[in-house]
Amino acid sequence: MATWHEYLIKEGRPPAWPYPVRFGQEREIDTDVLVIGGGIAGCWAAISAARQGVRVALLEKGDVSRSGSGGPGCDHWCNAPANPLSRVDPDEWAVHMADQPYCNGIGIQIQCRENYDTLLEMEQMGGKIRDSEDEYVGAEGRDDETKLMISPRYGVKHSYLADFETVEPDYNPPEKRNNVVIRVWGSTFKPLLKKECLRLGVQVYDRVMGTSLLNENGVQGARVVGATGLNCRTGEFLIFRAKAVILATAGAGSLWLMSMEHGGYSNMHSRNISGDGTVMAWRAGAALTMMERSGGIGIATGLKHKWYTGAGDASYENVPIVDAKGRRLPYPIQGWEDAGAMVASPETEAKIRQGVLRGEYELPFFGDFPAMSDVERRATWLMMLGEESTTKIIVKTLNEGGFDLGRDQLMSYKLIEGQSPPQWREAGYGGGVLVDWNLKTTIEGLYAAGSQMFSPEDHSFCAATGRYAGRKAAVYAKEIGGDLKISREQIEQEKNRILAPTKRTSGAEWKELHNGLTRAMQYFVSEFKTERLLKMGLEEIERIEAETVPKLFALDPHKLMRSIEDLSMIEYAKIIIQAMRERKASSIPLDFHRIDYPELDPPEWDKYLTVKLENGQIKFGELPQRFWGNMKEQYEAHNRDYTGVYTPNK
Ligand SMILES: Cc1cc2nc3c(=O)[nH]c(=O)nc-3n(C[C@H](O)[C@H](O)[C@H](O)COP(=O)(O)OP(=O)(O)OC[C@H]3O[C@@H](n4cnc5c(N)ncnc54)[C@H](O)[C@@H]3O)c2cc1C
After folding, report:
1. Of 100, 249, 446, 610, which has the most beta carbons under 10 Å away?
2. Where does ligand 1 bind, in terms of residues with CB under 6 Å?
3. How far out from the chain centre does Cα 458 lie?
4. Atom of ligand 1 nearest to the CA of 62
């Protein structure tokens, strides 16, 4: 394949835009349930709604077959306590997992009860969840009867059971394992989800970006009756009428960091995630929560190698780490031996660092594949690393370069790479749409699932909550009348907003705008938080909005999409700053430190802060910790008709 440079040399010019451009041309679509975002949660929502017999449309900015954070694959199906090898009770495990402030107990309960059912459905669609070809017989955690492969993650360390805590930390014997995380062949999942959507008659709109929600009669806070979309290839403007809408566009975008040269200038997640859904919900009048939370960017930014580390995190869970002289790091890092922590604890990290500084260990470190048994290293190299394209590329490149698992060690970037600066942050640690036990937002007709919700968890959380939201939205759509009072005025306003950059041929491009935003966030909304800095941040972003947004220009539909994403990110950033200013206390669990309000987690601030727009004005509210009530009782009260593999008290 020719490189970009070779193409330019050969053709003498960049390629022309390959699709017909129809900026502003309208198309109207009627459906019962509209799902916005065709990632993990969105696909599952569309499938489960379609199985209820309603008409479903699915909008996806990319191509459903590989879009989103789950598009590259998945190797861990976490928190599946209803699986047959589990040693914990799903409801008790859910309580245990939700035993932390500011989490999403509703989603965790749904995950714990339903994600094994979800996985079995994935298998029915053709997804590979078992070692059916007996490739990994003898691997630790593999069950010969079910052929499921249990991961060490969440082994015993996090157990709520008292007798588990007596286990020695240096080995986690099989009979003491929780067995709640399953290793899966998740690169097979996403294309199969799309196939199932199409099989069920879901109208899939690939390359269509949802841009706004339509409220009944155009009134903010009123029932949601549809949405608008932009075709990112043709510029066509789509108007969807729907009895129920499910938002599944995931969380925030890259608000603090933009690097064109490295790793797609995004954080760990898909570049297409730019906070659109949260901002759509906000403009429509739905309440958000946890918006003040942000954290340093940990892994896989493209600027850091941590995902390619050789050992010590995520997919490399059972690979021992040795120093440059072959000395095994004696501290549990990850895997069966440290009872399943996903990354080393801060104490372990500190011990390793001190050991290096004292000369006890010599850098760099290596993942010691040769020290592992053949089946263990194959399970890691071929299955775990092979099931996510971010690591599959490493396997492929190294294999082609002659890497020999039985002979070669893989260099680890632990310590030598350093930490991200605190100004490289991401908001994906908790902020999102507030939901109830039906995964309904605070507005009628609007639902949310996956990492669109506040305090999201992982892949199987998103799959299970998507499947749940689809079911609930379909029931609502069947009950509600078909009289959808859409406001033409609201549509016109949105159309003008979306198409404004196409009316200009010069000015500021989306990259400039994005970069300006991230700079303002780095300077004023990062490690040091004071009222003055936050106010300066807000003023700076509002200045950018007033001066640069009116100059924004887009010459093709793709650049228009990127421009609209910038507008979402600007709005998202402003909500974050407003929420940060409102929380007048510091908090350890929120990783939120205000210099002017240093008191840590004072009782009067031990609560969720909610925020929404009412008649265009910001309204703050609050909710107590564990506002969802008794998880088991609430779940059962809301799901009397649900039948799954797990039956309580069986
Ligand atoms: C490389 C990698 C490996 C991972 N491995 C694991 C793992 O092994 N186990 C695990 O539990 N988790 C894993 N995760 C995390 C997991 O993939 C995510 O938690 C999960 O995909 C989130 O699901 P979601 O549906 O909320 O978001 P996504 O799957 O990201 O889907 C969001 C979708 O919305 C679309 N979208 C965004 N804006 C719009 C818009 N305006 N209009 C239309 N569409 C829009 C996006 O294109 C995207 O397709 C991994 C993540 C990555 C990046």
Report:
1. 249
2. 36-42, 59-62, 67-70, 72, 74-76, 78, 209-210, 248-250, 268-270, 272-273, 276, 388, 390, 450-452, 458-460, 462
3. 7
4. 47
Determine which helix (DSSP H) or strand (DSSP E) holds 610, and give its type and residue range: strand 607-614
Select from 190, 213, 63, 220 the least CA-distant residue to 128: 190
- 345 domain-assigned: yes
The greatest distance separating any two alpha carbons of the chain, rounded to the nearest whole angstrom, comes to 74
Confidence at 647, pLDDT banded by 50, 70, 90: low
* 14 falls within a domain: no
Provide the strand spans (E) within 248-305: 288-289, 295-296
**Ligand 1 mean position to 556 CA, how many Å?**
26
Which residue type is seen at 555?
L
- Measured distance CA(383)–CA(430) in Å, rounded: 30
The number of the ligand 1 atom at minimal distance from the alpha carbon of 387 is 8
Q: Is 454 a member of any domain?
A: yes
Of 40, 59, 69, best ligand 1 pocket probe by most atoms within 8 Å of the beta carbon? 69
pLDDT over 80 (residue 447)? yes
d(CA 171, CA 336): 7
Confidence class of residue 270 from pLDDT cuts 50, 70 and 90?
Answer: confident
Measured over the CA atoms of residue 410, residue 416, residue 422 and residue 424, the dihedral's sign is: negative
Task: Please give the full DSSP string across 202-225, using - where no structure is assigned.
Answer: -EEEETEEEEEEEEGGG-TTSPEE
**For residue 226, pLDDT beyond 70:** yes
Helix, strand, or coil (residue 471): helix
User: Tokens for 476?
Assistant: 């609502």
Last residue of a domain, one of 359, 382, 412: 412
What mean pLDDT, rounded, does the chain reach? 90
Of the candidates 477, 56, 29, 58, the one whose C-alpha atom is nearest the C-alpha of residue 239 is 29
Hey, which bits of 328-398 come out as E strands? 365-367
**Ligand 1 atom closest to residue 269's alpha carbon, by position in its atom list:** 53
Among residues 125, 154, 184, the one where a domain terminates is 184
Q: Quick one: which atom of ligand 1 is closest to the CA of 307? A: 1
Closest residue (by CA) to atom 18 of ligand 1? 459
What are the strands, taking DSSP E only, across 218-332? 224-231, 237-247, 288-289, 295-296, 321-322
The structure tokens listed for 258 are 């933009």
- Do 576 and 512 fall within a single domain? yes
- Closest atom of ligand 1 to 451 CA is 26
Residues spanned by the domain of 292:
26-70+189-296+424-479
Long-range contact pairs involving 585-593 (C-beta distance under 8 Å, separation at least 24): 589/100, 589/101, 589/102, 590/102, 590/290, 590/292, 590/293, 590/430, 591/293, 591/294, 591/295, 591/429, 592/292, 592/293, 592/294, 592/529, 593/527, 593/529
How many structural domains comprise the chain?
Answer: 4
Q: Please, what is the angle between helix 90-97 and helix 631-638, to 10°? A: 120
State the CATH number of the domain containing residue 516: 1.20.58.100
Task: Return the pLDDT at 156.
Answer: 52
419 part of a folded domain:
no
Q: Which of 458, 465, 571 to mutate to test the pocket of ligand 1 (most atoms within 8 A of CB)?
A: 458
Q: Worst-scoring range by mean pLDDT, 77-81, 394-398, 464-468, 632-636?
A: 394-398
State yes or no: cis peptide before 169, omega within 30 of 0.
no
